[in-house]
Amino acid sequence: MSDKDVDQFNARAGRYDRDFLGRNYHRRVHEALVNVVAGLGQEPRAILDVGCGTGSALALLGARFPRAGLSGVDPAPEMLRVARDRLGSSRAVDLQEAHAESLPFGDNAFDLVVSSNSFHHWVDQAAGIREIGRVLAPGGHLVMTDPFAVGFRRWIRAMPWFGRLRTAAEVEAMLSAAGLERVAWRSARVGFVSSHFLIARPG
Q: Residue 84 sits in a domain of what CATH number?
């Protein structure tokens, strides 16, 4: 994530979950993400959220999988502060300030890695995918959602991060280079848009 993006998220952290997108989009995406994970039919033991933001998705995953250890990384310290306030008193959670391209965890540390609307902010997306492939244990899964360049609306072209949208083929090429393979793409109606969920696993 660029320094400019980090500054913007730091500035929005206190109101991120309460603004229009937080209430009407992000929360619903996180709920859909949990449903996709639950549909895998596995009980994860160690969950990592890459770009965890305010910890909203981790909180929902923790409620759904109460025996799982929770970890999250985000490069915006103010977002992590909000996440610690949300999650810190309820259970042991490991939240660290880090970029997707340099995850501060050992190899094969997680059997579930998730990422929600963070991928288009990564400066080096291929490196982030490689890092996920490194920390994801055999038999584990990656579940990622983002405004992928599949079925997107024309107004997204005006967004400053439009150039970082990736097609399904481009993302799958990154997966392959990282030793991961696509399991499936899932779509879910989330408020006023359709969200696309990528499910992948070690190849």
A: 3.40.50.150
